[in-house]
Design goal:
CATH topology of the largest domain: Alpha-Beta Plaits
Number of strands: 11
Helix content: 10-25%
Oligomer: single chain
CATH architecture of the largest domain: 2-Layer Sandwich
Strand content: 25-35%
Largest sheet: 9 strands, mixed
CATH superfamily of the largest domain: Alpha-L RNA-binding motif
Distance between the termini: 15 Å
Number of domains: 2
Order of helices and strands: EEEHEHEEEEHEEEH
């Protein structure tokens, strides 16, 4: 059996599923390939890389928390994070009754991203900054909750890469919001084996 593996640049305001009883925008609008499903999720108000496949064991392997593969995000946050807040994010923060795993966090220059419609809210007297965060877990709205917990709410969130063991990162390179491509044969061979 030949499986399909697709990379999609999920746009803002699109659900990470193919159907929605409320008629909201979904992956169906962008991916005309039957029987593929997202590996993991991105919130409706987040953008970026989604891997889709019809390979059930691979989908399980890549989405189950025990396998802990990396996910890199670019987060535009309100105000300028302090060194202390970055250190907190790196060591893990408590969200309700859960402590996040340590993350790789660094300040970055604004990434070259397509315009988002609608744009983030703009406040003339409140600066913003960009962070790159690499997580090895994917709790619901985790990046947003982490940055808010240290006092710097996320305004825009983009998953920029999936970091798989012994594989070249899967990235957004060459894709615009709503576009997708098949994984290359080399990329498929580098996926973790079940």
């Amino acid at each position: 059996m030949s499986y399909r593996y697709l990379l999609l640049y999920k746009p803002y305001d699109v659900l990470s599923q193919f159907t929605d009883a409320e008629g909201r925008r979904s992956l169906k609008e962008f991916v005309p390939v039957p029987d593929v499903y997202a590996v993991g999720r991105l919130d409706r108000d987040s953008e970026g890389l989604l891997l889709l496949t019809d390979d059930g064991p691979m989908q399980h392997r890549l989405s189950h928390p025990k396998f802990a593969h990396g996910r890199r995000y670019w987060a535009q946050v309100e105000r300028e994070p302090t060194p202390q807040s970055l250190a907190q994010l790196r060591s893990g923060v408590t969200i309700k009754d859960y402590r996040t795993r340590p993350a790789i966090v660094e300040r970055i220059a604004e990434p070259d991203l397509p315009h988002r419609d609608p744009p983030i809210r703009y406040r003339q007297h409140i600066p913003t900054a960009w962070l790159a965060l690499t997580l090895t877990e994917g709790k619901n709205r985790q990046v947003r909750r982490m940055t808010a917990a240290v006092g710097f709410p996320t305004l825009r969130l983009v998953r920029s890469a999936l970091l798989l063991p012994q594989a070249r990162p899967l990235t957004l390179d060459g894709l615009q919001p709503g576009e997708w491509r098949e994984l290359t044969a080399d990329e498929v061979r580098s996926l973790p084996q079940s």
